[in-house]
Amino acid sequence: MYKDKSTLIIANWIFIGVAMLIIQTLLGGITRLTGSGLSITEWKPIMGTLPPLNEMQWQQSFAEYKKIAQFKYINNNFTLSNFKFIFFWEWFHRLWARFISIVFIIPFFYFIIRQYIKKWMIMPLLILFCLGALQGVIGWIMVKSGLNDENLYVSHIRLAIHFIAAMILIPYALVFGLKLKIGHSQKIISKELTFFTLCILILLTLQLMYGAFMAGLKGAAVAPTWPDINGNLIPTNFFVNGISNAFFFNIINIHFIHRTLAYIILILTFFWWLKAKRINTSATFNLYKNWPLIFVVIQVILGIIAIVSSTKIVRGNFGQFEWIAQMHQLFGMLLLLSFVANFYLISPKNIK
Question: Suppose 269 and one of 104, 206, 285, 296 were both cysteines; which one would form an S-S bond, judging by CB atoms 3.0 to 4.6 Å apart?
Answer without folding.
Answer: 296
